[in-house]
Amino acid sequence: MNLLSRFLVEGSYYLQSAPRYQKVKKFFHNLLENPSYRYKRYVDVFMILLILSSVTILIREVKHPVNDLFYDFNTYVISLIFLVEYVLRLWVHSSLSEIIITRYQKDELLSRPFNCLKAVKLSLLSKYEYMISIPAIIDLLAIVPTYHELRVLRIFILFRVFKVFRYTKSIQHFSSIIKSKKFELYTLLMFASIVVFVSAVLIYVMEANNPDSPINSLFDAFYWALVTISTVGFGDVVPITDMGRAVAMVIIVSGVAVLSFFTSIIVSAFNEKVVELYETKSIQDMSKLHSFYLICGYSDTAKIVASRLRRNGKRIVVLDRSAEKIEEAKQRGLIAIQGDPTQLASYKKFNINFEEKVRTILCLEEDDVLNVYIALTVRSLSRKINLISIAQDENNIVKLKLSGVNEVIFAQNIVGLLAREFGGKPVAFEVFHAMRSGEQQMYLEEMVIDYIIMKNYHNIASLPYKRFFLLLLGFYRNGEEHFIFNPKHFVSLQEGDILVFLGEHRFVKEFTKEIHKGKK
Amino acid sequence: MPASKREIAIFGYGSYARSIAKNVRRTGAKLTLFVMDDALYSKAQHDGYEAYKIDMNTEVEKLSNLCDIDNLLVFCAMHDDANNIFSTISLRAVYQELPIIAIGSTHETALKLKNAGASKVIEKLQTVANMITDMIEKPVVTELMHDILYDESSLKIAQIYILEESPYLGKFIDEVDIQTKHNIIILGIVDRELSMDLSFTTRGAHHCITESDILVVIGYDDDITAFKEFIGGLRDEEDWDYWSREMGASTLFRSETE
To answer: Would an 8 Å CB–CB cutoff place A416 in contact with chain B?
Structure first.
């Protein structure tokens, strides 16, 4: 390996492993290219304002003298900012060092000499690919400053206006709609072109020789044909011979057809895309959430679960395959995304880090087969996410557990146990029921002992819970399997203990506040 | 658990009814199943239950021949909601006093079942949904309740009747330190002299223990048994019917017929 290639490879490794460099690069990448990054919006707004001010100055300049300060701002400052942006985008688009390293490793693996030139060429090619993309070209042309002296450069104002589109989403949607109807639009364009061409030639042949006719050149003929077929009809150029008028009639009729055909294509494309647009919106809403619960399958149980969790201030996202259920969930104000929860692609679409954002995934389909399927799909995505599932058949509990579900809820069993409890001890049952549902404002509440509490309170006796009419049932301690019931007063607390109190919700709240305040 | 004298009848033999039957059988109560069609009848018999075929249109009176009506608790747990409502209303039409617990799937069915005369309705979806949300919001509490409900720990919630000879008669709850002495916690009290409602001890433990009070306690099985012997109360009731009738209008049952 010669000195140059060694330098190249080592330099690439250095850049790849430099945390600071990678961090800065990631920051700019997020800022410019990641739509879910919080601060990207501010950059977008700032750029749009710059463009608008630039365009305003240019328009003003056409007929009025502009203050030199504004002129310089427009010519140098804005252009410079655009240049910086262009360079940054080019920088974050791909990683030269990464491509060189990959190439180097591949060559090493195949034990062939490292071709330095080829690696550089490859990495530069990736930059070149970006440079010839349409947005990049617009960006580049928008940098060109508009000097007074060169009037021709005014055309570049156009690119500054185009640049606005980069920062607005609607135009991206629009262009994707146009793209989806490429074939239809192409057909229409061909038809219109042929009609324009034929009628332009015909009208030229009919009218050009007539000295009274305004159509004297082929350009006039094409101009007339286009104005007519678009149903604009300025009326500045009109045929005067009978033959010319006959041609006009044909082109007018076909003009109406072309226009209506064009409108219907665009409208139907919008209709087809509208679901997708809503979905994009839902996914955006979801990615703004810091943490949420994902419900797979919007069944009747899911409806109740969702409304209860929402009442307690939890964030919920629903994933279901049926459009009607998604619609229903949306009407109830939930973020709902249509997709098959048994397909990995549906989760990939979310484009988020699941382990970071999803607190728990609830499999609430009314079919055990689906729930098993969902559980397996989720598990292939992440091993860590907490999974809760309902089961319809006792035999499937084991299967659900095997497929990776953390907690299985089997309705029949719960009802059976409740029934037994109720049959045997009606009063105790009532207490049990009241404590769980909070019917008498009585709740079982849990409280975690944190370091703030530990600073002031060391044992059970020192906690002033009795003042708040709370009943301490016991606590769970990390490492100990069983619940420690009715602890003695001298038992000392440990950080991470979870105490279980019975009492009114508001008193528990007051109590929590009090012990976090510290001792008086 | 000590054998109960009470009888239990279950209508239907769907998945819910099976689960109820399985759990109730463990308590030792006399259990009778009533089903409508032959398939379920043979299935119930095959599983070893005492089962009868019944036509809810005409044969409701059959119940009083087969069971001790005054000592009976009925579960209506048929697979389909419409049949369940019909069974409830048929039973209520003949037996005005009978405690009927019905299983309903949705909130709407639950309301209909109450209107049909069920003393208590267990809503399937609601129960499951509650379980899920509790699991998410209060995992520790849920686990604790689960252990109690599933018999997975020796912690129990029990009701204790205060009889005449109890040593604590006339004493205040906060005066006698039951919590440290007996290692059980009193959750609530039903003072039958005042009202039939249950009051939680956290709302003020300054309550004088009198005869016929019911204490609801939580504690280890052994401690509860010891306490029961000490206080001279009966654990687990002998007069469930008393409860169901006398206290019918209170927190337990809000049925339309009563």
So the answer is: yes
Residue in chain B lying closest to A444 (CA): B141
Give B251's contacts in chain A (Cβ within 8 Å): 430, 434
The CATH code of the domain at A182-273 is 1.10.287.70
Chain B residue whose CA is closest to A407? B135
Between CA A469 and CA A442 the distance in angstroms is: 11
Count A/B contacts: CB-CB distance under 8 Å.
199
Q: Which B residues, 95 through 134, put their C-beta within 8 Å of a C-beta on chain A?
A: 101, 103, 105-106, 120, 122, 124-134
Question: Could you report the predicted ipTM of this complex, rounded to two decimals?
Answer: 0.74
Chain A residues 312-331 with CB within 8 Å of chain B: 312, 314
Burial degree of A371 (CB within 10 A; 0-12, 13-18, 19+) = buried
CA distance A449 to B107: 38
Instruction: List, for residues A191-208, the tens digit of each pLDDT value.
Output: 999 999 999 999 999 888
Residues B180 and A265: their CA atoms lie apart, in Å, by 81
Helices (H), A36-115: 40-63, 68-72, 79-93, 96-109
In chain A, which residues have their Cβ closer than 8 Å to the Cβ of B150? 417
Structure confidence at residue B238 as a pLDDT band (50, 70, 90): very low
Residue A459: DSSP 8-state? B
> Could you report the per-residue pLDDT of A143-185, keeping only the tens digit for each?
877 665 566 666 777 787 887 877 777 777 778 888 888 898 9
Q: Do A308 and B130 touch (CB under 8 A)?
A: yes
Which CATH number applies to A438-517? 3.30.70.1450
The CA-to-CA distance between both ends of chain A, in Å, stands at 74
The pLDDT assigned to B256 comes to 30
Structural domains of chain B, with CATH? 7-130 (3.40.50.720), 154-245 (3.30.70.1450)
